[in-house]
Specification:
Layout lengths: L1 H10 L1 H15 L4 E7 L5 E7 L2 E2 L2 E2 L1 H9 L6 H7 L3 E3 L6 H7 L15 E3 L10 H14 L2 H17 L5
Parallel strand pairs: 5-6
Antiparallel strand pairs: 1-2, 3-4
Helix pairs in contact: 1-4
Length: 166
């Protein structure tokens, strides 16, 4: 998985350069957004994304970058470092975990796999905590190459067809 992430990173260098320049010229410096997230076994790591917001507002370019899902490209570095996988539960901040009440032992299974750039819960068109945890737990219990491939293929379609269709 790390080797594949490295290959995709290398191939994506032109996209990184174009996005970095576009973000810099429309929003100023700080091209990469960094934030502490909670990963496997509740270990903290720094996640990387292309910056899409300035002063807590999504910029027009940021809206496009998010819609296409390319704000997540820097997370390939997280995969290469071993903090993340291509598919898995969304990596959350500790504040999100506290707010959702996912700290107790009944949720411990969720933290037994690496978080992913995409996952089953991210394919749902409704933003709902109970649906998210159900899908995260389903993924943990059913994780396989074929499940990952299915989720990845649907995730690639989301920017083109939308979540409802994918």
């Amino acid at each position: 998985m790390r080797f594949l992430a490295l290959i995709i990173l290398i191939i994506s260098i032109p996209v990184f350069i174009i996005l970095a320049l576009a973000i810099y010229f429309t929003s100023g410096s700080n091209i990469i957004f960094k934030q502490k997230r909670v990963g496997i076994h509740k270990s903290e790591f720094i996640i990387y994304k292309f910056r899409t917001m300035k002063q807590n507002k999504i910029k027009p370019l940021g809206r496009l970058i998010r819609k296409l899902g390319i704000d997540e490209l820097p997370q390939l570095w997280n995969i290469f470092k071993g903090n993340m996988a291509f598919v898995g539960p969304r990596p959350l901040t500790q504040e999100d975990i506290d707010r959702l009440g996912w700290n107790n032992t009944s949720y411990s299974k969720r933290w037994s796999v690496k978080p992913g750039i995409t996952g089953k819960a991210q394919l749902i068109s409704i933003c709902d905590a109970s649906l998210s945890i159900q899908n995260d737990m389903w993924y943990v219990e059913n994780q396989s190459f074929w499940v990952d491939l299915n989720i990845l293929s649907k995730s690639i379609l989301v920017p083109i067809t939308g979540k409802r269709t994918a």
